[in-house]
Automatic annotation (TrEMBL):
It comes from the Bacteria. Keywords: Metal-binding, Zinc, Zinc-finger. This is TraR/DksA family transcriptional regulator. A zinc finger (dksA C4-type) spans 91-115.
Length: 127
C-alpha cells in the first residue's frame, strides 16, 4: 500500500466517522432549538414581571447560543453536502486533497495547509 492509498483509506474512515458525528451534532442542535421554542411559548402563556425579567436574561443567552448554533449548523450542512457529493476533503482553492490528519483536527476546514498559509500571508485579519 503506497502513501496515496493510505491517505484515501484514512479519508474513507475519517468521512465515515465524521458523517455520524455531524448527523449527531445536527440532531442535537435541532433538538435544542426545538426545546427553546417550546420554552418561549410556555412562558408567554403565564408570566409575572419577575419571571419576564429573568426570562430576558436567559433569552439573551439563548439567542447567543442560537446564533452560534446556526453557524455550526451551516458548517455541518456544508460538510454533509460535500460528503454526499464526494467533494469532501478537497481544497476549495486548489482542488488538491487536504491531508487526512488536518481534516481530523479541523473537520470544517475548506483549504489545504498550503492555501491556508498562502491566505494568511496576504492578511492577518483571521489570526
Ligand atoms: Zn489548496
Amino acid at each position: 500500500m503506497n502513501a496515496t492509498e493510505l491517505q484515501i483509506k484514512d479519508l474513507e474512515n475519517l468521512i465515515g466517522n465524521l458523517k455520524e458525528s455531524l448527523l449527531f451534532q445536527k440532531a442535537s442542535i435541532l433538538n435544542k432549538s426545538h426545546e427553546f421554542k417550546a420554552e418561549q411559548s410556555s412562558v408567554s402563556a403565564h408570566g409575572d414581571e419577575a419571571e419576564i425579567a429573568s426570562l430576558d436574561a436567559s433569552n439573551n443567552i439563548s439567542i447567543h447560543l442560537h446564533e452560534r448554533d446556526r453557524t455550526a449548523l451551516y458548517s455541518i450542512e456544508r460538510a454533509l453536502g460535500k460528503i454526499s457529493d464526494g467533494t469532501y476533503g478537497q481544497c476549495e482553492a486548489c482542488g488538491e486533497m487536504i491531508a487526512a490528519r488536518r481534516l481530523q483536527a479541523r473537520p470544517f476546514t475548506a483549504l489545504c495547509i498550503d492555501c491556508m498559509e498562502e491566505q494568511e500571508s496576504h492578511s492577518n485579519i483571521y489570526q
